[in-house]
Amino acid sequence: MSNIPAELKYVASHEWVRVEADGTLTIGITDHAQGALGDLVFVEVPKVGRKLAANEACAVVESVKAASDVYAPVAGEVSAINEALASTPELLNSDPYQAGWMWKLKPANPADVAALLDAAGYAKVLETA
Amino acid sequence: MTLKHTALHAEHLRLGARLVDFAGWDMPIQYQSQLDEHHAVRSAAGMFDVAHMSALDLQGARCREFLRHLLANDVGKLKLPGKALYSCMLRDDGGILDDLIAYYISDEAFRLVVNAGTTDKDIAWISAQAAAYGVTVRYRSDLGILAVQGPQARTAVARHLPAALAEAALQLIAFQAAWSGDVFVGRTGYTGEDGFELILPHAELVSLWGSLLADGVKPCGLGARDTLRLEAGMNLYGQDMDESRHPLESGLGWTVAWTPDDRDFIGRRAIEPLRGNSPQTLVGLVLEGRGVIRAHMPVRFANGAVGETTSGGFAPTMKQSIAMARVASDYSGACEVEIRGQWVAARLVKPPFVRHGKVLV
């Protein structure tokens, strides 16, 4: 069974979202996603300052097997990226919810986050997949 | 369609392997980390269930003569019993039906090891050609194949063979086999490392796997097998070549034996005019920019020559992306690969990329 922390929000396309104290969102891919992809060898994240639409394909994770798009959970502007992933993409495998975060987003509309899945909702997505 | 199982299928499930349909067989793509499996073969020893591949035993007084007609490489080169030869088997028009290894057993007996996805087609083709030579073809479905690869592979295997066979196996030179009854050990492989490929009865294969596992030989899936063979610059049938491609545009010109001039192997008349002037050729690429090359990505050169990658991926030993690409033979100048809409610089190299744990390019 994959790890689905209760305090995070989720998207059915396997991204997680953490609402930080200052209202920015930290985004990554779930434990289930990293397990399904296998060993990750290359990660491309959006540039700081880029404005993203909700559900826009804005990042790419490549495993030994294949490339997969990662989508913006909500609209907003990229405020920071995890520079460590360029040289150590395996952080997405070893620590998907902490050291393996991908980018931070200043949401266009903070209320959008409420519409995302909670842990139970995401667990249901995995069960029915 | 029900997937076929090798004798190790239950063992793969027990070890928690992720299984995929490979040419109609339910095979392990990886057990835990594909990267760890890859590195184990480069640094120590790993083992692969390749029992989906097939051994075909050919028998008949004219067996050697037959194979000199059937195969693009020349089994006439094989003088020492047990010596092996890598060859393409061509259609009349030069298209590659399969790539295989032929072992010389005796003047009246050879063993071929062929790919899983091509086995049925191969048996039909070989049997049809063999009739005129009085050669019989026996599909050894009673035998399985286990590849044990890596710098420690041969000593690991030898510990579990009967003493006389172990001694013979350890004295083998590359591309040579020894056997005792139905246990057959060849010093061959598909990884660029030293090692053995064993062909043996299923029950003995399962038993040997168990012994090697207990000794710490790492089970490896088809995923690691693919990254290892790509680093070793070895072609994958169905990907780097198939029936629509001939050896000279598939990096396999070196396996075509043109001498003696009068050896009339199947496909010779079609490809001989292309000798030295094939319009396309297969090259190796190392990505200089960021990203991962995959199969079927466009390739271009400064002089306008173009092509397409046939295999590509991340090379774990090199920690960068490499590929094989079929390109116009008149290419020159800087090379780029189009990765998801962006042209990224690549360097042309002559495979292999990695051999015996060392990066060569």
TrEMBL record, chain A:
Keyword set, alphabetical order: Lipoyl
Residues modified as N6-lipoyllysine: K65
Taxonomic lineage: Bacteria, Pseudomonadati, Pseudomonadota, Gammaproteobacteria, Nevskiales
Superkingdom: Bacteria
Residues making up the signal peptide according to the UniProt record: none
Listed HAMAP family: GcvH (MF_00272)
Protein name: Glycine cleavage system H protein
Source species: Hydrocarboniphaga daqingensis
Subunit text: The glycine cleavage system is composed of four proteins: P, T, L and H.
TrEMBL record, chain B:
Recorded GO MF terms: aminomethyltransferase activity; methyltransferase activity; transaminase activity
Annotated GO biological process: glycine decarboxylation via glycine cleavage system; methylation
Domain GCVT N-terminal: 8-258
Record: residues binding substrate: E197
Domain of life: Bacteria
Keywords: Aminotransferase, Methyltransferase, Transferase
UniProt catalytic activity: N(6)-[(R)-S(8)-aminomethyldihydrolipoyl]-L-lysyl-[protein] + (6S)-5,6,7,8-tetrahydrofolate = N(6)-[(R)-dihydrolipoyl]-L-lysyl-[protein] + (6R)-5,10-methylene-5,6,7,8-tetrahydrofolate + NH4(+)
GO annotation, cellular component aspect: cytosol; glycine cleavage complex
Matching Pfam families: GCV_T, GCV_T_C
SUPFAM superfamilies to which the protein is assigned, alphabetical: Aminomethyltransferase beta-barrel domain, Folate-binding domain
EC number(s) reported in the record: 2.1.2.10
Alphabetized PANTHER family for the sequence: AMINOMETHYLTRANSFERASE, AMINOMETHYLTRANSFERASE, MITOCHONDRIAL
Assembly description: The glycine cleavage system is composed of four proteins: P, T, L and H.
NCBIfam families xref list: gcvT, PRK00389.1
Protein family: Belongs to the GcvT family.
Protein name (record): Aminomethyltransferase
Lineage: Bacteria, Pseudomonadati, Pseudomonadota, Gammaproteobacteria, Nevskiales
